[in-house]
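Issue: copy button drops trailing tokens. Both records pasted manually instead:
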Amino acid sequence: DTIALVVLVVVFLAATLICGSVAAVLHRRFSVQWKRNQSKKGSSHASRSLTALYAFTGLFLGLFFIVLCALDVIPWWVSGILSTIWFFAVWGFKSRFATRLLKQVRGKGDANLSRKLTRQVLIELSLLVLFCTLWFWLCWAASSACVTFYPMSISTRVTRPASTDVCLQRDPCHVYLTVGRDLANELILHVHSSHRYGNLTVALSTVSQPTATSASSYSISVATQEYQVTRLETTRVVYYAALSNLTADTTYYFRIVDSQPLAGFQAIYTREYSFVTGPPSGPTSSPFSFVTGGDMGVSALTNQLTAVAAAQNPSFVAIGGDMSYDNGIAACYRRWDAWFDMLASNMLSSSGRLTPYLVAPGNHEGGNFYQTDASVFSFYRPYFVREPLNGRQPTAMPSYSSHKVGSLLMLSLDSNVYTDASAQTSWIEQIMSTTPQRWLTAIYHAPLWPSVRPVSDPVSSSLRQFWGPMFERFGLDVAFENHDHAYKRTKPMLANGPSTTGAGTLHVGDGKWGLDDGLRVPQLREYNAFVSQNAFVLHVQVNNTAISARALDSTNAAFDSFTTTGFEP
């Protein structure tokens, strides 16, 4: 965001400086022309030309202030004040210069000229006051702008009320699970609402209670911790329940209950939901599968691929960033609502069964630019908690995590979005050196070995420098990569390039869960075994002897597949 702001400042100030310089150069030119041309018609024409030039110069910086308030860099009223000061300064300078030249041409003692200039100043001043008033309204209307991609949409605080806010009702608007540290015994329930509840709890049981009318019919009660998302133009509260100490390979049923509502509100008692825990974690486990991909958005193609993903009946869904394309903008909260609704319409079965998510951050979660300060604003951390908070704030949690699912360990890594790759190396070493899991995998956003961007890309180079040697040292079996909006499968890779022995890490993915802009063409480079422009999700099957995967398009047809028996360094 800092880089973007600096670029924005340079562009607008350069444009303003150019216009101002042109105005200064034309001062002398107009001055000479006016002295040569004593006619009223000639001086009036030159005056209008100069007025237009100054207006153009003033509007440039005024629009720059509007962009700053639209991006929430400055409040709208500050933008209005700065713009007004600038407009009056430009008008004052223009009026003084034009008046001086006219007097030089027409004579200082011309009474008619004095009366005309006074009348002209009053008219211009009145129009300028009216214009600045309208500009203040424009600053307010443009503030809190939301710009999203795939599909692209733009909204402001003026246009958003015309669309439906799905979270206005009293009941929870989004209910979903994230994978905890071990899918066999821990998941984190997230509940979104536009209201605060008195005492929200989760009534949990291994026995379905479809006709139960109270939480007492369920054997377990789990407390929640709340967090109110800041800087939004609406109220959004997220409640978290750490569902821990669960039994592996077991179906659980639950309802969300507020039996002690705040004054003036009714009790909350939702429909019955369910989920299935994963197999016991360890060197061996029963077979399971998951789907993975990244770079989604909320397009029709994304929805089709999400339906394909749900049809595989996965144990969980791993998403490698750039999920809703909210661009880290607080005003884009409704894009996340649309994204959660899209997933729920496919991943939530008619019986109420939830499929948990395992996620990693992408650059569009961080604000569309790398190394974003999450303390400024981010939906990512409060929307995807991956371990019990135990009183901590979700914004204070690390942006990377590890997860066990049966015989598989999956690292969710941060590819320089919130945390430098170098800052995660000691943690990666500690986790990978102590895990008993048969399979070592990782999911993250930017690829070590890109298929579209140049291999010299600074982020990819940084990841290869810090993560590549560790992947090779500990024998990472598969790395699920994203970001390039294409499909690729590499040859077995070591830290510095393709393996000559066939033993190495497979880097698969590059993220195209619904994006179909047609602009990204993957390259079959020396390290790539297969590339494609197809939008896809990966269906990955895991057992004790192999990891197999199929790349599925929007028709559920496989266009690539692979099997690995592991990387033993």
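Record 2 (pasted manually too):
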Amino acid sequence: MKLKEMNNKMAQVAFSPGQLNPIYLASATASEQNDLSANARPTLDLYEVDVTSPSAELILSGSTETESRFSKLIWSDYSSTNSKNLLIGGFENSKICLYDYEHILNNSSSLIQSLEKHTGAVSSLDINPFQPNLLASGAGSSDIFIWDLNNPQVPMTPGTKLQPLDDINSVAWNKQVQHILASTSSGKCVVWDLRKNESIIKVSDSVSKMRVKLVGWHPDIATQMCLSSEDDNTPYLQIWDLRFATSPVRVLEGHQRGILSFKWCSSDSNLLLSSGKDSRLLCWNPNNPTVNGEIVYDLTTVGQWCFDLSWSKRNPNLVCTSSYESQVNVYSLMGGRYNVTLTTSSKIMDSFGVDNDIPGSPTAIPQQSVQIVEPLKIAPNWMRNTCGARFAFGGKLVTFGKYVDVHHPEQQMTGPTQAQISSQRVLINQVVTDQSLVEKSHNLENALQNGNLVEYCNFKIENSSDKNQVAIWQYILATFEQNKNSKYLELLGFNNETLDNEVKKILKEHHQIHQNENNLVQSFENIGLNGQNSSENSSMFGKSEEENANDNAFDDIARSVSPVNLHFNNQTENLVTELLLLGKYETVVDILVQEERFTEAILISNFFDQNLLQKTQQKYFRHFYKNKFSNVSFEK
């Protein structure tokens, strides 16, 4: 939708940089304007673009006269010692002039510097996005110069001049790689590597024979570019990828006649604006692989051929067009409705003196109509929420946005680089409103910074009323002790003296039990069961005197020996566990040997000490040969 307009001036246009507020539009008398009167001088004008004002007229804020008409105009981010955001114009008299926009607003002398090196009209200019002091310019005779605006006396060239000599129609810096430059001339596009000071590739379509006029780099993809031609036989845009430079990867077909200008939106790579001789202003989504391209915005400019376009960096909704019909218009991509005045008369009819009284002549009757323009079909990046926050239950705060990693104080003043800005992140935070908790957090941070961790743990132990919290801080304090393992065991309730007393008690009990077992063995030895044959004359069913004596011996043994229980009890199991934790493996093995649990004793001794293993084996073999009745078990 049209918001602002300016008539009776054919101009090169450029919006102000994004950091300037309010938004200004620079308008410079174009070299295409040939109807200047003898007394009229070309001018460079600044207009304030106030979209809140209902008036359709642009507000003139400042103006200055220039020595020649402009072939190209850009508003740069470059700032010198005394000036900032300079306006740079390429003139038809082969000069490049730098202007201070603040001086233009104050109606004072605004010309800062004039660069003279070219031999023809300077038809193309571009500022390096990484180093704003580097200016690329193209003119006649295949001249391409790289100017260092800090020291512009001796410009450099990207390489050997192209042959045959021809006008340089367009130059463009790569948006991702700072030493790559593209230029167009003689219907071809050439890519230069300034580090090698030579051209690295020439791009041309051998199938369609399209004569390239303009070039523009993809804002996000380093190897992709857009090419266009003003030839009516090839009225389309070509998207090329230099990794596959044999043919274009995408062709955008929508114009019916040649393309006069196109601009890629620096705020959203999904938007590419083009204007053609068919009086149409089209906005494309060049990243959509749809056949013939996706048109997301279509505006008919009512018979206007727009030769220059400009995107507003501060408000990307705004685009400016300049046409051969001496009209400068500012449009909004958000659509809407506005009045259009249509007339059947023209300047040609007025020049020939054709009036309405001649029969058959067209009647110049102004007609008012309302034109409705649909907004963009896709949501642009600048209208999407870059950050946001929502509260959730339980004091949770959910936020999303781009995470910025800034470590140095000077970067906090100048802002982060693109490499320091990562993709979108979602964070869930706990919102705390308890001031006492905040104070505790500050105390902990101070202790961590100063290294007073032992004092902090003692402070928490003394001021904690909860037994569990006291125990936790005691364990944390134990980590700073030199013999922290012993401290851990002490906190767990293991006492060496208590364990030694229990071990002595257990061993004493087992010693008494084994003494009884030895008495039992001695009693068995007194029995005459030595494997000898009984008397041949003894009766099968009767008992001899020796047998009766043996029966009495069994009765005496049964009355004198208490029952033996060889099973572990819970107390002994707990004692063994505690001894293992304390590392007293020999004591554990002694208890297991006393309990005749040789398997566990051998396994433990084998794991910890080979000498202990040999001692355990000797005890096992000694016990095995000594106890002839090891398989006998007596239960009560």
